[in-house]
Amino acid sequence: MRAIVIHETGAPEVMQLEEIDRPGPGEGEVLVRVHAASVNPVDWKVRRGPTRGELPMVLGRDISGTVEVSRAEGFSEGDEVFGMSVSGGYAEYSTAAAERIAKKPKGVSHEQAAAIPVAGLTAWQALFDTAGLKDGQAALVAGAAGGVGHFAVQFAKVAGARAIGTASGSNREFVLGLGADEFVDYTQQEVGKAVSDVDVALDTVGGEVTASLLPTLRDGGALVTIAAEPPEEAARKQGVRAELLIMDAGAEELEQIGDLVAAGEVRVEISETFRLDDAAAAHERSEAGHVRGKLVISIG
After folding, report:
1. Bridge partners of residue 274, in order along the sequence
2. What are the distances in angstroms from CA 184 to CA 103, 141, 202?
3. Residue 216 and which of 18, 26, 41, 275 are 20 to 30 A apart at CA?
């Protein structure tokens, strides 16, 4: 099979398209013929190194495709599935553990499905599992036009919460089009002064943004970050909490998100699609930042 392999860590040039052996599924796993994968910041962070994994390595986590071989209960040859790869997603074939995949709903393309797992689960777990967002509350999403952010805005609305999104002014209509009740252009306004009394603030940006979200929270609110060390001490002094989310893939939540996409309640924004042999260009685009929604690699 063809796959994007790295033999050393470094710049995008270390990514090589190679012919390698197909992986074999272990017990509780399936072999997937990959139709699409997506690019996440974690992919190029692994590529940059240092990595705990053994080299050479096939990059990529998100996949959508068709089961070729199943050694897992609940999945059969021919099932269309999406989720997270074990052996690497930038490849024509990939293995996946049953507990980290779900059956792809009809009406959802492989490109859409491949864009969901890492970003969708991160947004879902940040808002609901970690922060406990509920109907009638308010959520602020920093980086609302990005992969995680654009899902988070929509999930907040599905839950019945008021959603406030921050992004640059060029993304105003996009974020409001996702259902956001309010938009803040961070290049023109200080978010901590423009927004107050939210129950949940989700930081997808990191850097100075993380701490700047604390003033937006009401007493007892929660700041969840996926991009920086949480300012726990400052949060305690303010009477709120700050937590770092480490996403954990789960089939049940994947199914819930997939169903929302299939029902038209959540949209998947794909800003650009690349071929497998253009995976390095996809990394360059992702690393440059300010990607609206997701970047997808179409494999076949």
Report:
1. 297
2. 37, 10, 14
3. 41
CA torsion angle 63 67 68 69 (round to 10): 110
Cβ–Cβ contacts within 10 Å for residue 136, how many?
A: 10
pTM: 0.97
Residues in the chain: 300
Sketch out the chain's domains with CATH numbers: 2-116+268-298 (3.90.180.10), 119-244 (3.40.50.720)
Segment 62-78, tens digit of pLDDT = 999 999 999 999 999 99
- C-alpha–C-alpha distance, residues 59 and 65, integer Å: 17
Q: Which two tokens stand for residue 228?
A: 């920086």
Span between the terminal Cα atoms of the chain, in Å: 12
Task: Yes or no: say if 18 and 283 are a contact pair by the CB < 8 Å rule.
Answer: no
**Bond prior to 41 in cis (omega within 30° of 0):** no
